[in-house]
Design a protein that fits this description.
4 helices, transmembrane transporter activity
C-alpha cells in the first residue's frame, strides 16, 4: 500500500506544481487554493508512505515523479522546448527512479 500512496503523492506533486504556475505568484485565488490542497494531500500521502518505506527511497521516488510529471506538463501544456539535453536529463531521472525501486526490494 505504501507504494500506491507514494505514486499518488508524486502525481499530486505534479498537480500542485501546475496550479502554482497557474496561480501567477499566488495572485489568483482558485489556482492558489488548489495548489495548497494538492500540496497538503501530497505531503500527507508521502508521510503515509514513509511509515514503511525508507526515507531516501520515498523522497527520491516522490520528487522524481514530480520532476518527470512537471517536465511532461511543461512540454504538453506550456510548449516548453524538447531538447536533447532535457530529454537525456529526464531519461536519467527515470533510470534513477527504476534503480531506486529495484534497490528497495
Amino acid at each position: 500500500m505504501s507504494w500506491i500512496y507514494l505514486v499518488f503523492a508524486g502525481l499530486l506533486e505534479v498537480v500542485w506544481a501546475y496550479f502554482m504556475k497557474q496561480s501567477a505568484g499566488f495572485t489568483r485565488l482558485i489556482p492558489s487554493l488548489i495548489t495548497a490542497v494538492a500540496l497538503v494531500a501530497s505531503f500527507s500521502l508521502l508521510a503515509l508512505a514513509m511509515r514503511t518505506l525508507p526515507l531516501g527511497t520515498a523522497y527520491t521516488i516522490w520528487t522524481g515523479i514530480g520532476a518527470i510529471g512537471a517536465f511532461i506538463v511543461g512540454i504538453v501544456l506550456f510548449q516548453e522546448p524538447i531538447t536533447t539535453a532535457r530529454l537525456a536529463a529526464a531519461l536519467l531521472i527515470i533510470a534513477g527512479l527504476l534503480l531506486m525501486k529495484l534497490a528497495s526490494d
